Structure formats: C-alpha cells, structure tokens
Amino acid sequence: MQTHHDAELKDTVRYLGKTLGETIKNQLGQEWLDRIEKIRIDGRASYQGDGKCSEELKETFKTMTDDDLLTVGRAFAQFLNLGNIAEQEYNAAMNVDASMDALFEHLDKAELTTEKVQEAVGKLNIDLVLTAHPTEVTRRTLIHKHKELADCLQAVHQESLNDVDRAKVETRIADLIAQAWHTEEIRSVRPTPVDEARWGFSVIENSLWEAVPDFLRELSDRLTKDYNVALPLDASPVQFSSWMGGDRDGNPFVTSKVTEQVLLLARKRAAKLFAIDLDRLQVELSMYDCNDELRAKVGDANEPYRALLRPLVSRFIKTRDGIDDYLAGKNPDISEWVESDDELIDVLMLCHQSLIDCGMQVVANGLLLDTIRRARVFGIHLLRLDVRQDSERHSDVFSELTRYLGLGDYAQWSEADKQAFLLRELGSKRPLFPAQWDASDDVKEVLETCKVIANHSKHGFGIYIISMASEPSDVLAVQLLLQESGVSWPMPVAPLFETLDDLNNSPDVMRKLLSIDWYRGYVKGRQFVMIGYSDSAKDAGALAAGWAQYQSQEALVAIAEEFDVSLTLFHGRGGTIGRGGLPAHAAIYSQPPGSLEGGFRVTEQGETIRYKFGMPTLAKRSLGIYASAIIEAMLFPPPAPKEEWRELITTMAGQGRDNYRATVRHDEEFVPYFRVATPEQELGKLPLGSRPAKRKPQGGIESLRAIPWIFAWAQTRLVLPSWLGVMRAIDSVKTPENEKVVNEMFSEWPFYRSRLSMLDMVFHKADPRISEAYDERLVPKELKHFGEALRTELKESISSLLSITGEKDIMANDPQGKESMEIRAAYLQPLHYLQIELLDRIRKAGDESQNTSLERAMMVTIAGIAIGMRNTG
Predict the structure, then answer these.
(1) Is 133 a catalytic site residue?
(2) Needs which cofactor (predicted)?
(3) Residue 726 has pLDDT above 60, yes or no
C-alpha cells in the first residue's frame, strides 16, 4: 500500500527528474531527451521482470558511440543523485524528533526514578569518528550544490509559500540542477588527505555546528520537563574525532607534515567559527548589570560583557590569521593565539553565571548557552585527531635501532624478550635514540609523527590506534616511541583487533597487557580497544565475524571488570553490511550487556557521514537515534545469550566460516571469476579517496582492502561478502530437535535477530538477474558455472530467510526502506547494462586504448551505481 510519504517523495523525484530533463533538452535537444526517457521506461520495465525490455537496453547500448554512452551514464547518475537528495530532504523533514520521542516513551513505561535517569544521562558518551575511507564518490563542489538544492526543496515544501516566492525557489532549483549537469562529476585527481580533512571540517561548519547545540537543548529540555533532570553545563555527551590526516595505515600520503597541517587547519576552522559566535554574542550582550566577579575583571566598563568578550574575539581572529601565516612560512606571534579550551570556556561561564545572578536567565540560556555547548563539544581544536599506524611499522623502528646498537634484531626476539626490553626502557631516564643515528626514511617518518604529537596540545588528539596488533608488545612499543619523542601526557593507545584470529586472541592479549604493573599505572583506569568489522568479515564471512566480534567484546568487558578498568570499545564499522554496517539502534542494542559502560565510540565513514550528518536536521535526528539507543541499552540491557544459544551460534559461525572460505579462499576458480565478473580492476582507476586500493600494490585478493572488495560486488548486485555461506550455515542446524532453540534465538536475542535483519536489507539490494547479465557478457564460458552456483545459493538463502521470518517478501517490515530502493530502481537498471557494455569495450580495447570517453563513462557508471545503492564500501 502506498503511503502519503511514498506519494509525496515520488512527486518530488518526478519534479526534479523533469527539471533535469529540461536542462538536457536545452543542451542536447528534444531527440536526446526522448532517447533518455525511452531508456528510463525500459529500465523500469526491466526491473519489474520484462525480459524484452532488458534485451532492448542491451541492444540500444551496443549501437551507441562511446561519447553517447557517456551522456547516458551522466544523465542516469544525475537522476540518482537527485532522487537521493529528495529522499534525504524528506527524511530530514519527517520524524526529526521521533528518536527522542521513542526514548522518553521507553523511560516513561519503565517508571524510572530521577536518580536512575540522571545516572544514565551522566554516562552518555558518544564519540563519532569521522573517517575518509575511499567511499565518498561525490565531488565536494557537487556536495555543495546538493546541499543548496536540499535547502530549496525544504523551502518549496512550505505550505505558507506564496506564488511569487515559489516561482523564485523553483528558478533556483532549475539553476542548481543545470549547474550540476554542466559540472564534471568525477574528480580529475585523487583528493589529498588534507582535502579529505577539509571536507570533514565543512561537515562540522555547515551542519553539526548548528545541530549539536539544538540536539543538546532539546535533550535537556525534555529531561527537565519529564524528570526534573538538567543536562549540566559542563556536559559533552557527544564529541567528534577524526581519522582524516591521521590514519596512515597503508596510506603513504599521510605523513607527519600532513598530520601537523591538518591539526593547524582544524584549529583555524574552530577559530573562525568561534570568532563569529563570540562577535554575535558581543553584539547581543549589551547589558550593564553584572555580578562582582565579572566587574572585577572589566573594571568600570559600561558594557561589561562586551568588554570581556572583545579581547577574546580579537585573539580568535589572530589565531585564525596567524595559522594562515604560519602555514605560508611566515613567523606570526603565536603568543597571541588562543591556546586552551579553558580560555574560551572560563569567559563564557563567567558571562553565564553573571547573567543568572542578575536575573537574566532567559539571556543566559539563549545564544550564550549554545556557544558554551559548542565549546564543550568541539573546543578550540574543532575535533580530536586520531593517529593510526600498522604494528609492523613500529616494530621496524626497534629492529633498526637494536641492530644499530648491536643488540640483535628486535623483530626476531620472543614476546617475553620484547616486553622486557620495552618495559626496561620505559622505566629508564636516559634517552634511547642516539643523536647521530641515521635512520631509514620509513623509520624517520614514524618518529616524526610522534614528535608532531609531542609538539601539539593533547586536546587536539584522540587516541593512537595500532592496526594488526596481536601481542602486548605492540602496545608497549607505541608507548615507548611516544615517551622517547617527548609526549608528556598519557596518550591512550588502542590495539585494533580485526582478523578472525586477532578477535579470538584479543582477550588473551588484553589480559597479559593489564597484568603488567607499569601498564596499569600508565592507563590510569581507562582502556580503549578497537574492534575491526571490515577485515574480519572479509577474512571469515559475515556470520563468523559477527559472532567473533560479540564474543571478543563480551570477554573484554569481563577482563576490564576484573582489573577495575573502564573499557571503551571503538567500533570500526563501515556503511555497508559487509563492513559491519547496521541501523544505529540495531547495532547498539545487539551488543553484549555492559559493553556501553565506558562510552560508545564508532567510525562514521565516507558517504554515510553525508547521509547521516550532511544537513542540520538529519544530524540532529542521527544524534537522537544514537543517544536514545545507548540510554535504552544501558537502562534496559539486552539479555546475555543462554548456553544453548551459544552452542548453536558457535556451530553456525564455524559452518559459515567454512562455507565462505571454501569459495573465497580454497576454490581455484574464485579469483579468476571475481576479476572478470566485477569491475574490480577498473575500480583502481576511480580517483576516490587518498588511500590506495591495495595495502601492497603487487598483492592479490588477500591484499585488497575491504572497501573495494565490497564495492566491486555491490556494482554487480551480487553483494556476495555480506551473505555468502550464512543461510546455509543456519540451515545446517535447523533440525527438529533444534527448532525450539532457533525460534527462541530469533524472538529473544537482539544479536541474532540483527544478523537476519542485516541479511534482509542485503537481499533487497541484491539482484541475481543483474549479476547474470554481467556474467553473460563478461565471463568466459568455462567460468560461467561459478556465477550460476553463487546465484543459486543467493536465491536459496532468500527463501530460507523468509521461512524463518515468516514474511512473504524481503523488507516487509520496512516498507519505507523498500520503497526507497524501488524509487531508484528505474535509474539504476540502465546504468548496470551500460556498465556491462563499457566493461566489454574497455577490456577488448586492452591497455593500448587511450579512449578518454570510455574511461570517463566507466567512472560515471561506477559512481552512479554507488550513489543508487546508497553506499560504496
């Protein structure tokens, strides 16, 4: 049944599509518009199962020139962009407060005391880590146009708009769509890590700067109204960190110089934003009454608040301009810069208390309160930069050093010997690194990064993450490097456990680490551990990875309690299911009991940042969903799994791992099939993020990053990594004697239910007919059976899932999500057939081909399909 939401959204999509059609007609003529419209109609019929229209699409594209294929690709990619913008704007307008309403409904039903609610709110700690994994396919210049377009759609949907103003807004919409059509949608060069960081700063400036104080104000107002619990002025229940410019794992372009530049640019952006806020406050706080404390600061000034704020505005402006000068190689007076959050917060709090004391509560809790909230959440550094590096790079430093000192090769030592050496040096007062040591460039780079950390404020940094961590020495090595480089504060160091083996071994590693007296003294009761989702799923399949992640977290929570340490689990989730992506509420509520006690830290990656936080209303809604899910999970924790559930899921996970690896690792035909059936090889040419697609350029499938691995399968709609082997594993334990337990797991255990919910979403995005069309044209005869077998398993898996859920169709419980995908289907279908044609032409032309139209059209289809699927990696 079509809802009002569906009808209104479809009307908006049609309106935007018609406007784009007018733009195309103005440039290329009516004949071209008619061709594109015919392709769109055939695309919809093809999606609905009309085989004749599918054949017509194939034949149409075969007869087109390379340039014509590019034009068609651009048109349908633009249609999909506009459809996404319409949906995004509509979702932002709808149910903005639904998450908050749901939270307070739960609280009311539970009849909780004020003290219990106050305790839960006091523990609320959401740390969202913005990352620039190469998943954002849309250029920044187009993102700006799309945001303007969303604002226009918001305006045009206002019922109070008169005809003159409506016509004005519609003219602006047509203008923006024309601008986008005449703009190159594909970057000509890869973005640098600094470009990526600037993009992250822009998300804060254009969306979160407004959304965060709005969200906190609403949360505080509702708490006060319903429970007489106020959100304290010093609360920062949400905070933002970043990997952009700090994540150097496998990215040679992130250097110590880049990290320092990004730190300074973040401070510059914060200085710019606070200068604007404070100047506005200076204009508004014209009152003359103040308390004695403020009067003592400003003397007999007639306008005491302005007198207090004016010098601070000046210091922020000098900070902003001085950073520009510093980066340009000049020597600004750094003593005039704002150096700490306290310089800002102390002034704001003094103004706030004075206004309260003088009976001006309404003024105190207006713009001033919003600025106080921003100061607490963002601070003078805007966000906190994480540093990530591979454990092998740290080990290389000590190998090179010990060889230079004649102590042997650190890399060859036993774990016990490494720990003894590291702990001895951590307790030593003499320098470890010789002054004359001429280290290799790679080692120098690691040391220079540590020096950058030492030379900047600890408030500008988050945590140091070690990827591929497998032993306590991996953590101790980083702490020694930081100490030797002059880092005078205990920077939190988090091991990242990402492969299946690493996840399974993580409790043992952390127990050994926390058993070291020196280490427990260093961490002062606070430990971070990062759980990797991407590589574990790529390594062992979705089900085995999910259960390993759950067990690892459960064991780590228990170990933290045993050693009386507050544990913050850091979730390295991606936007897609194959990389741990889940709706926020389901993701949080499916975690083990007790895993949120130390806060919730999660990566927000690539294009999902834009979809969740790209507009203030969307950002406010997303923050509300996170807050409500976390508070709910703390107050009403999910049940711990029963023993019989554990036994069954362990059996399922083992079977799922074996099923997955039998195909991906052990079947000799898998890699040859993967290379020809997907655009994996062509993906490397798309200038997405700053990071290379492979950790090792000459490596095979094992060295392919999890993101392009997922991306390639999404393009062909087989979305293989997200489901392969899972339902067959579940079916293998669905015996009559287990039936009662399996049904109980589905109805009572959020973790298990969320696995099946993920599959429901995956199966809706999958399309065996599209995958078959890729195989038909691109896969040699001797490998065709491989794809047929995979599609057979996909179809069987869908049937099996429906038999468990009792639903007649996929996504029956989420009609809005289902409709969302179907709105885009008519535009997605032609892009797939177009991409197949392009892949065939490109591969037949071989390496000698210099056809830029073909290459560009290929990039456009890759980007367009990613946009239509609403995620890439």
Answers:
(1) yes
(2) Mg(2+)
(3) yes
